[in-house]
């Protein structure tokens, strides 16, 4: 009977696909291969969203334009990198909660492998004069990348006077070394109080019957397993347990895209006492993150490798992508309500204003380290102009590396 039911659903899916112009639901292997291909070949934030849409909507027609737009809107409301959350929401729509975690692994795997190799090479050969010169020259480029990300985040977050005033109020507090997590939470609470009512949003599709219970069960189960792993590590490798706890805290609080996570990572690992990563190492890891495909939060792999080698890199990467996946499977069935909740949307706006202030603080810290030579500030300004003109990040980083090798080595 179960087999007949499954065949009936497949036949019904095929008939609906013919009527709507959409292809029937793909096999799991084909869907995961498409995600892997995007993970291997995609660079540059918003460009990755466009590539994911091209693969799933335009070429394959596995989801409609409206469904993809709804998944993207959901990803922008929850913490963590936008593209993995979008892919996870599509995976949950097509296959159910378990595939969210499989999709996270498949999408992040190429970036993890490449960043792992680059991290090992960096900590082995980074002291060589030529390598040191390249990263010294890339410092102004990293300042430009953080500055461009600040501008991009500020445009939606500070779209009215209240958002601007909230960011201005919170900004000095970051320079007093107050815990950034507390300030982000304060921004969310203040956002509920002071932000204007959001525009009425479309309700979105209703979740299938029973999906709330399944999503909650999977989310809590995986979150519990992650917590148990950290407890086990705490008795065996305390530094690795601390690493996983800090990274997971960052991953579930970073609204607004990858660079908000980068800002929290900077506070968690550079500004801690004693620091686990030096400011220069963090900028070098961020530069390597621009050379790898996928989201910039793969910089956490570099940090993990510095802290504890391969095990640290594996733990940092796992706790970067899995806690947001737990949020996706838990919150996705409630998306229609979240989208209509003025309190939730105000809180997100307040958190984004706090992240603008946090990113400004990180920009100041990075600039203090990188813009020491007299040529560095003009180089950073030129790189910023190129980025704002739409030149791909990878091209700007590559050009900076070549020029550094030619003139600074």
Automatic annotation (TrEMBL):
Places the protein is found: Cell membrane
Main location as per UniProt: membrane
Key words, A-Z: Cell membrane, Membrane, Transmembrane, Transmembrane helix
Keyword Disulfide bond in annotation: no
Superkingdom as given in the UniProt entry: Bacteria
GO cellular component term of the entry, any: plasma membrane
Transmembrane stretches, start-end: 99-123, 135-154, 174-195, 216-238, 250-270, 311-335, 347-367, 379-408
Topology relative to the membrane: Multi-pass membrane protein
GO function term, MF aspect, one: chromate transmembrane transporter activity
Signal peptide: none
Entry-linked PANTHER family: CHROMATE TRANSPORT PROTEIN-RELATED, CHROMATE TRANSPORTER
Entry's family note: Belongs to the chromate ion transporter (CHR) (TC 2.A.51) family.
Name of the protein in question: Chromate efflux transporter
């Amino acid at each position: 009977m179960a087999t007949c039911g499954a065949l009936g659903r497949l036949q019904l899916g095929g008939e609906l696909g013919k009527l709507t112009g959409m292809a029937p639901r793909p096999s799991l292997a084909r869907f995961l291969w498409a995600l892997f291909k995007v993970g291997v070949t995609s660079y540059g934030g918003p460009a990755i969203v466009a590539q994911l849409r091209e693969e799933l909507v335009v070429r394959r027609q596995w989801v409609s334009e409206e469904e993809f737009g709804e998944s993207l809107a959901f990803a922008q409301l929850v913490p963590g990198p936008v593209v993995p959350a979008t892919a996870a929401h599509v995976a949950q729509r097509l296959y159910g909660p378990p595939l969210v975690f499989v999709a996270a692994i498949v999408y992040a795997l190429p970036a993890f492998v490449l960043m792992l190799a680059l991290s090992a090479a960096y900590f082995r050969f980074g002291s060589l004069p030529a390598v040191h010169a390249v990263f010294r020259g890339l410092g102004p480029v990293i300042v430009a990348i953080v500055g461009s990300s600040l501008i991009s985040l500020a445009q939606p977050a500070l779209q009215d006077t209240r958002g601007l005033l909230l960011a201005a109020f919170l900004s000095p507090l970051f320079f007093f070394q107050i815990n950034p997590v507390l300030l982000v939470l304060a921004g969310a609470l203040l956002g509920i109080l002071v932000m204007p009512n959001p525009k009425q949003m479309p309700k979105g599709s209703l979740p299938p019957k029973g999906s709330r219970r399944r999503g909650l069960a999977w989310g809590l189960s995986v979150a519990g397993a992650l917590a148990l792993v950290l407890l086990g590590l705490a008795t065996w490798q305390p530094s690795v347990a601390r690493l996983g706890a800090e990274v997971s805290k960052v991953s579930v609080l970073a609204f607004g895209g990858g660079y908000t996570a980068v800002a929290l990572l900077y506070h968690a690992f550079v500004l801690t006492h004693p620091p686990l990563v030096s400011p220069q190492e963090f900028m070098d890891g961020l530069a390597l993150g621009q050379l790898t495909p996928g989201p910039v939060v793969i910089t956490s792999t570099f940090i993990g490798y510095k802290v504890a080698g391969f095990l640290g890199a594996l733990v940092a990467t796992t706790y970067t992508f899995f806690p947001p996946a737990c949020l996706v499977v838990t919150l996705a069935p409630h998306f229609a309500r979240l989208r209509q909740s003025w309190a939730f949307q105000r809180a997100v706006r307040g958190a984004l204003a706090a992240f603008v202030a946090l990113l400004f603080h990180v920009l100041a810290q990075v600039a203090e380290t990188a813009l020491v030579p007299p040529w560095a500030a003009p180089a950073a300004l030129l790189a910023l102009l190129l980025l704002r003109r739409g030149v791909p990040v990878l091209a700007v980083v590559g050009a900076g590396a070549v020029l550094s090798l030619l003139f600074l080595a």
